[in-house]
């Protein structure tokens, strides 16, 4: 199959997309991709083709590359957007540049638009080998997906089945010029070492190394899909509604998880945590076992990137770092308004008639008591425990005071006086 036909077939599901953006670095891969698309657009009714070049500012020749990209786009009649980014500091310049680049791409994409990148089969094989040497699991060895969401649109890699040799042959046959990043020759970068030293040596012994590694990525992607489907089934039983769902904190019932094998527990949790934090490495799962096996009255914590898991009743809860920050002091409530914005802690709404007196919203400090109808004065800590409010929610739970007397606890109608209902919309972090 010709490159034209292969590309047209790969992009067939997105022919109705409003714009196809090409991530155009000026290198071989993206130059061939842009040329192919521009040529196809002359013969077929395709979405608008545009190019986007990210200027990292890391190389002396970066300005020249931008100028080269503009020249190529002018010749092809394709509009080019050049975006300058600031690359963050860190142990890996490559990784920091990649993060900055894809953040810029994501911000450019409109609803339903595509970003097309030129990664090919050799890149896929290199990624598999790189991740294998780092001890990646099934998800990591699936390497680069052909399609994934990005911003308000999607990222598509339509050339993953094409070899670099085929791309270079096309470029030479069509007289295309491209730029070479000199950093690609620096062997101190691990990927360059694999590309320049390791893969050629492997191919001397096993000529089909690249295609075999790329095929392995496909097998791993299929295996990961099955693992994800199993995780969805296992999580379905654990995602029932429990108490305090108004806290807006992701949570799971613990009992269904305990009934799974250890391997299925880890698989389900990896899937659930994927949108919340970085995947725990193999040496970090002891934190889960401590959390799972702790006594009911214990308060174990499993610390992860950007937050932690805690136990609350018979459920586990994800608490982002922002939730763990202390809330502010008292907030006065005056006037006829029945709603109140709490700094850093969502909003409150009163249903019923506002009590007459000096109203203030406060948070627990310890030692609070409340006069409960038919029960007399009771310790607030015990009342919250009876209501099943997890310990980590209590510090943020708004308390309404009228003339120094606690008259209502947010979202607990059984702990209110005078027909006042205090509804709290907790923050979403």
UniProtKB/TrEMBL annotation:
InterPro entries: Lysidine-tRNA-synth_C, Rossmann-like_a/b/a_fold, TilS/TtcA_N, tRNA_Ile_lys_synt, tRNA_Ile_lys_synt_N, tRNA_Ile_lys_synt_subst-bd
Keywords of the record: ATP-binding, Cytoplasm, Ligase, Nucleotide-binding, tRNA processing
Region forming the signal peptide: none
Protein location: Cytoplasm
EC number(s) from the headed UniProt entry: 6.3.4.19
Catalytic activity: cytidine(34) in tRNA(Ile2) + L-lysine + ATP = lysidine(34) in tRNA(Ile2) + AMP + diphosphate + H(+)
Entry-linked SUPFAM superfamilies: Adenine nucleotide alpha hydrolases-like, MesJ substrate recognition domain-like, PheT/TilS domain
The protein's enzyme class: ligase
UniProt KW Transferase keyword: no
Chief location category: cytoplasm
Pfam families (alphabetical): ATP_bind_3, TilS, TilS_C
Keyword ATP-binding appears in the UniProt entry: yes
The Lysidine-tRNA(Ile) synthetase C-terminal domain, residue ranges: 359-424
Family that this chain belongs to: Belongs to the tRNA(Ile)-lysidine synthase family.
Annotated function: Ligates lysine onto the cytidine present at position 34 of the AUA codon-specific tRNA(Ile) that contains the anticodon CAU, in an ATP-dependent manner. Cytidine is converted to lysidine, thus changing the amino acid specificity of the tRNA from methionine to isoleucine.
Domain notes: The N-terminal region contains the highly conserved SGGXDS motif, predicted to be a P-loop motif involved in ATP binding.
Protein name: tRNA(Ile)-lysidine synthase
Organism of derivation: Pseudomonas songnenensis
Highest classification ranks of the organism: Bacteria, Pseudomonadati, Pseudomonadota, Gammaproteobacteria, Pseudomonadales
Gene: tilS
